[in-house]
Amino acid sequence: MIGKHEPSHRQGRASQAVMWVECKVLEAGCGGRRRSLRSTVMRLPCSFWFLLLLGAGGLLLLHLQDLTETLQQQNQGAKVIFSQVHAIRKEPCPYCPDNNRQTDPTEDNFPRSAQPVQLPVFPWVQRSSQINPKDITAAHVTKSHRKLLLKSGLLVQQLNADPPGQIKENPEQLSQVQLSRQRLMREVCAKYTSGSTKQTITRMHVSRIFVEDKHKLLYCEVPKAGCSNWKRVLMVLQGLASSTGEIQHDEVHYGNHLKRLDSFDQNGIIHRLKTYTKVLFLREPFERLVSAFRDKFESPNSYYHPVFGKPIISKYRSNATQYALRTGAGVTFKEFIQYLLDVHRPVGMDIHWEPVGHLCSPCLLDYDFIGKFETLEEEANFLLRSIGAPSNLTFPSFKDRNPNAERTSLEITRRYFAQLNVTERQRAYDFYYMDYLMFNYSKPFKDLY
Ligand SMILES: *[C@@H]1O[C@H](CO)[C@@H](O)[C@H](O)[C@H]1NC(C)=O
Ligand SMILES: *[C@@H]1O[C@H](CO)[C@@H](O)[C@H](O)[C@H]1NC(C)=O
Ligand SMILES: *[C@@H]1O[C@H](CO)[C@@H](O)[C@H](O)[C@H]1NC(C)=O
Ligand SMILES: *[C@@H]1O[C@H](CO)[C@@H](O)[C@H](O)[C@H]1NC(C)=O
User: Fold this and answer.
1) 323 lines ligand 3 (CB under 6 A)
2) What is the number of other CB atoms lying within 10 angstroms of the CB of residue 320?
3) Which Gene Ontology MF annotations are present (predicted)?
């Protein structure tokens, strides 16, 4: 649709970008209304709006191409086009999501107007004629893809993924690990994005990235993977505090001290993407999912219970009590998974359980550092030393959410997944399959394929 032909090894991301823009437009258009009516009646107009906006979005982007500067990234040969579609950004929680205040509605900082986004599940599958079906954002991976990967040996490799907690002693080892993670990520990205011709980065793609200008760091926030402590570190690096220990929880989440990359102008974004260290920290996908579930649904929460709990209970619980329907409290893990995997979700996605492949666009942004929650402190400190952070700054280990609850471990994760049947487990794995593959996490259950 837009952009000129790119070198083949980089092909394939534009359609993804365009698709994302259009999906976001859709969310802004139908998310709120559909939530209140909660029936198939609304789906028709919603699809209609989708098609309408799809057309309009295309035209808009075509037009924007005339207006926006395009830039050839010399080292990558990638074209970066920033469309000025500000209105598309809509999210349930604009801050680092691990916040605690939701139990007190009077202090609740969630903007009331922001509805959870209603992203159609697998739009790339349903509307594959308009987009590249091999798109990396595809949460749903077909069996033929799986075969292809098996053939290439990638799947076999990822089955022997990093054992959690493994100690990597020295900097050379740690840089080797980085190199192999990057190689794998690029390989998987190349496989899933071949065949399309364009690559576009929009503001939307960089909206989850925090900027630290002094040490030239870009950090993409992944909730439930050390995000709060990273924000503390960024605040210290920036000179907003002299140590991570003195930053209170609320300051981290409500202080709004850190800038996001999408708040800069086009040149500012391009310049930072090209010259800063781009960092991503992630976590075993099922563990992250269980951690999010426990955090949002197992303790009182004045946002997630009414906004997500109510529609989930009313759709998936056959004999729900009036109390449950009124409060949205007590969602079970099974009900939560039914919602997650539903093609017609009664309420939109949320960044806490959105795959990292969507949140941080790793195939588009080509991160320089891919860290893992399982070895968080060691890898974070390695990174801090290599960007020249003050030597007395080390990565902290505060647990912000529910400090009395046990941290979600592999063992706890297994306990939750044992509540599901094999079909549900398989579909949940398919949902996060790209995260598993791209970041070399091993298959979490033996009976999965
Ligand atoms: C995946 O992790 C395993 C175990 O640490 C490692 O041996 C392998 O090289 C990794 N695969 C890739 C492609 O990096
Ligand atoms: C680190 O050193 C700086 C000065 O070099 C000082 O201001 C800061 O308080 C120190 N931080 C900690 C945690 O000791
Ligand atoms: C209905 O609720 C009761 C208790 O609340 C539960 O024991 C029972 O299994 C439920 N029945 C169905 C069909 O869900
Ligand atoms: C698994 O649970 C789902 C409900 O989420 C149900 O529809 C499906 O029939 C179950 N499958 C099996 C094999 O029990």
Assistant:
1) no
2) 16
3) sulfotransferase activity
Q: Are strands 259-260 and 209-212 parallel, antiparallel or unpaired?
A: antiparallel
Whether the CB-CB separation of 352 and 296 falls below 8 Å is answered with yes
Write phi, then psi, for 231 (nearest 5 degrees): -65, -35
Q: What is the pLDDT of residues 266-322, one digit of tens each?
A: 999 999 999 999 999 999 999 999 999 999 999 999 999 999 999 999 999 999 999
CA distance 156 to 136: 20
Q: What is the pLDDT of residues 348-399, one digit of tens each?
A: 999 999 999 999 999 999 999 999 999 999 999 999 999 999 999 999 988 7
User: Ligand 1 site: residues with CB under 6 angstroms?
Assistant: 157, 160-162, 180, 184, 440
Q: Which of 140, 421, 408 is nearest to 293 (CA)?
A: 408
Q: Is any ligand 4 atom within 6 A of the Cβ of residue 39?
A: no
Cα(340) to ligand 4 centroid in Å equals 14
Please name which of 335, 347, 331 lies closest in space to residue 42, comparing C-alpha atoms: 347
Partners of 210 in beta bridges: 219, 260
Among all ligands shown, which has an atom nearest to the Cα of 392? 2
390 vs 244: CA distance, rounded Å: 12
Closest C-alpha to 438, from 362, 378, 367: 362
- Domain-by-domain residue ranges, the chain? 1-73, 133-292+325-438
Give Cα 351 distance to the centre of its chain.
Answer: 6
pTM (2 decimals)?
Answer: 0.68
The pair of three-digit structure tokens given for residue 2, joined into one six-digit string? 């837009």
Name the residue with tokens 């091993």: 442
Q: What is the CA radius of gyration of the chain?
A: 21
